[in-house]
Amino acid sequence: MHQPYSQRLIGALGPAQARLLGGLALASLVALPIMHLLPESHALHVSAYTLTLAGKILCYAIVALAMDLVWGYTGLLSLGHGLFFALGGYGMGMYLMRQIGRDGNYQSDLPDFMVFLDWKTLPWYWQGTDSFVWSMLLVVLVPGLLALGFGWLAFRSRIKGVYFSIMTQALTFAAMLLFFRNETGFGGNNGFTDFKRILGFPVAAPATRAVLFLLTVLLLVLALYGGWKLTRSKFGRILTAVRDAESRLMFCGYNPLGYKLFIWVLSAVICGVAGALYVPQVGIINPSEMSPGNSIEIAIWVAVGGRGTLIGPLLGAGLINLAKSWFTVAFPEYWLFFLGFLFIAVTLFLPRGVMGLLTRKGAST
Amino acid sequence: MSPRTDAATGEDFGWEGEATGLARPVDASQLDTRHGDILYLDDITVSFDGFRALNKLTLDIAVGELRCIIGPNGAGKTTMMDVITGKTRPDAGTAFFGQTIDLTRLNEPTIAQIGIGRKFQKPTVFEAMTVAENLEIALKTDKSVWASLRARLSGQQRDRIDELLGLIRLGEQRQREAGLLSHGQKQWLEIGMLLAQEPKLLLLDEPVAGMTDAETEKTAELLLTLKGKHSLMVVEHDMAFVGAIAEKVTVLAEGSVLAEGSLAQVQADERVIEVYLGR
Ligand SMILES: Nc1ncnc2c1ncn2[C@@H]1O[C@H](COP(=O)(O)OP(=O)(O)OP(=O)(O)O)[C@@H](O)[C@H]1O
Ligand SMILES: [Mg+2]
What we know:
The complex is a heterodimer of chains A (about 375) and B (about 280).
Chain A: H1 5-13, H2 15-37, H3 48-73, H4 81-99, H5 112-116, H6 132-156, H7 161-180, E1 192-193, E2 197-198, E3 201-202, H8 206-232, H9 234-244, H10 246-251, H11 256-282, E4 284-285, H12 292-305, H13 311-330, H14 335-349, H15 353-364
Antiparallel strand pairs in A: 1-4, 2-3
Helix pairs in contact in A: 1-2, 1-15, 2-8, 3-8, 3-11, 3-12, 3-13, 4-6, 4-11, 6-11, 8-11, 9-11, 12-13, 12-14
Chain B: E1 37-48, E2 51-62, E3 66-70, H1 77-84, E4 92-97, E5 101-102, H2 108-113, E6 116-119, H3 131-138, H4 145-150, H5 155-167, H6 183-196, E7 201-205, H7 213-226, E8 231-235, H8 239-245, E9 248-253, E10 256-261, H9 263-268, H10 270-277
Parallel strand pairs in B: 3-8, 3-9, 6-7, 7-8
Antiparallel strand pairs in B: 1-2, 1-4, 4-5, 9-10
The complex binds adenosine-5'-triphosphate (ATP) and magnesium ion (MG).
């Protein structure tokens, strides 16, 4: 059974300890940006590098949670979730490019890459992106509407299983090729970078970094709470019914289409918002975020952490990305081998991922 | 012709044809059974790659009737239920629910909502949920996304679940995961889920397969209490069970009706003996 893994973990730990652990995790996430604000000479100062790495991993953890809602709970394995994340990132990126104003290399109103392409005016889809509100609408609407259209076509035609996964993978691949083209108007393979300001504040200033980090923590907490409410509702039980016995569900009088669409679009929107928070913290967005490999990695985080649990994907995204940042420094060429090995090992020996391991340990002691 | 799913298990294949059928709501209270029939299949033909699983099948079920369908393996019994429940579109023929509702134009959820419940040949319950949650999902209620997001069990619904648990003898198991039940208990749970839907017509595909003799006897008792209040169509190979519940038996062979009558009558029929012994 999938649903009560988090509950079982809490049961094994004892509710008091679970609350303590959760509280400690949250407290350290809040402390981190505050420690970044300390003077650099201070013993407790947290470097921009560390804060950025942590913020990046938090964004990934949110994506993993969103992925788990569609894969772990509803049984729809998406191998294209990186696309929704990237689209949210590009939405924010457009705004950040406009915020550069005339401070770019060419001192033009247009973003540098457009000057370089000899464009004289903004393309129509860049209109309004100097407005923060409009850009944030794009962050939500573009991944949301794309997911709605794609999902409607796929679910209405009752495409599922490996066919669905392949289609999502093809979708993100096609988008990547599109964004690689300079003529598409999103900076080609360089994407967007060299951001200067967000809402007028310098984007790399410690205070800005701290606020962006805190917003990411807030989004994570909201996504976790929302996911907890959702999966414990009747709606959530119906999602697991879609996963386990869709025909039975239809013969009970439910049309799975609406249920799948709702969770699919919600998941895409969460990814989009996570992407929008990722870009100003990391300082770059380019089409490689849409590469098929990136989306597969998201699935691996969830598998390693534990499908169909809410905490598992967070642990999976955290552990793997910490390992990755270490590997890419120590043995960059072995990272993909390690990731592949990890995925196979988890599939064979830990079908419930880290969460399965924790609850088993917890239950036996 | 679009067989969307594996007939026997209800499991889904990966790629399926486009969903057909109108999603427009059909008012079940409009069910018109003035002529005494709740279900009327007329000249139904279903082919799978040229093989006729159903061949000009014509059959009707009266309101409140308990009909048993027997027939050798591959006779088309499950395929007939697939047609009635919207899972398979027939190549030809019509399937009417009451006088006015053409089932061949509706999709599975709509057909379930207007009052046809179905138990699969292989018992299918939501294994990751508790027994009580399985019944909760099946309860007759608004089944839209918005309703499910806000759903709270009412006192009335709780009572209904308790009542059903008593009826299917799973009161002790209410908090157990359905996946942990025995085969026979899963069969009962699935029957309980059908009843929770309050259907007018129940289709039961081999309801006592895998049950012990005692369980089979209890199931026969249960079905007999449902007769009259609901219409039932029961597919079974277990002749003792059929003998215990049937008034009228229909024998299906090679996709059409071979004989109809009391169990004794059809068992004495030369052609019936031949299809059963000839294999
Ligand atoms: N989706 C399908 N594709 C191809 N052939 C099918 C399909 N579904 C059923 N058939 C074939 O149609 C015939 C009738 O099958 P059906 O399952 O209706 O028989 P049945 O009377 O229920 O048999 P049993 O008593 O074994 O359950 C069989 O020969 C079966 O192989
Ligand atoms: Mg059958």
